[in-house]
Write a structure and sequence with these properties.
It is built from 4 helices and 5 strands, in the order ααβββββαα. The protein has helices spanning 4-16, 18-34, 97-102, 105-121, and strands spanning 39-43, 46-51, 53-60, 65-69, 90-94.
Length: 123
């Protein structure tokens, strides 16, 4: 089944900011490479990923793409790439395709997914 909201958001990105579209698509692919069974829905103007529990969101801005972790405060940050000083939320800013590997995105997605899975099991 095609998700109209997802397709509309992707088409808008492609039309108005092709560079961000390419980066968002690469980030989405990276997330699915870590969590192949993840589900995705459009919320808050971005893509929210879950696997029983939400574990991250992807948002395109004019100059970068942000991967948001709702419980980013619980993630170890061995590479010092998490940004944000709020009570819980942390994010990684990506400006180029090379940032995906340079900022170890898949490692952080995996950690966020594992944390959300543990949280679900503890219920």
């Amino acid at each position: 089944m095609i998700d109209d909201k997802r397709e509309r958001l992707l088409q808008d990105l492609l039309m108005f900011n092709p560079n961000r579209y390419e980066l968002v698509q690469a980030v989405r692919s990276s997330i699915y490479s870590v969590v192949p069974n993840a589900s995705e829905r459009v919320m808050y103007g971005g893509f929210m990923f879950s696997d029983d529990e939400g574990f991250c969101g992807v948002f395109a801005y004019k100059e970068h793409v942000s991967v948001e972790f709702g419980r980013g405060c619980d993630l170890d940050d061995p590479h010092g790439v998490l940004e944000g000083s709020g009570k819980q939320r942390r994010h990684i800013k990506l400006s180029t395709l090379a940032d995906i590997s340079a900022k170890y995105l898949e490692s952080y997605v995996d950690a966020a997914h594992r944390n959300s899975y543990r949280k679900q099991k503890d219920r």
